[in-house]
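Ticket #4471: structure output looks truncated?

Reporter: J.K.
Steps to reproduce: submitted the chain below (196 residues) through the standard prediction queue, then opened the result file.
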Amino acid sequence: MTTSQLILGSQSPRRKEILSFFSLPFETISPDFDENSIPFQESVPDYVCQIAEGKAKKLAEQHPNSLILTADTTVYRKGKIYGKPNTPEEAFQAFSELAGDWHSVYTGLCLFKDGFFWNNFEETRVLFNPLSHEEIRHYHKMLHWSDKAGGYSIQLAGGLAIKKIDGCYYNVMGLPINSVRKLLLNANIDLWNYLK
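Returned output as attached by the reporter:
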């Protein structure tokens, strides 16, 4: 397999980092897809999978002979979707609503190969610690939040906000390893063969 045969359709450094845990060669290309073109209509798995597939279809137009993997991650709590905050105010509002309670992180995945699209998704439940307004503002002052669903990260110091998780840690980072493995089996690629 040459480097150009697998495309990770993402600009996320976390997804690149996770896929780099394996010796499977790949390149990253950011898909030119408007995530806001997909409305949320009750089902979070459908929502994230539709966005992931939209990204894959966009890249497949330009790279029809490549194997393409795309993903979309969102945070969900009590009927509300929390995507990437656009402003500090949005980030603060999201954190205030998530603090002290459980929420779900969903990642939708899509794999394209030879004209076919396969979808998969993962859900991880996350419990936030109770947080004061001062703690939330300090978190957002010290840590990068604008490119993360819900305005937070689980890795490194970002994990200070999190009390407990139920499910895949890497899903919260944006690329659930076991779901990726299942999806890549459709292309006869098993990540167990690419451990490093």
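Triage note (M.O.): checked the attachment and the full token line is present. The first helix runs from residue 13 to 19.
Status: closed, working as intended.
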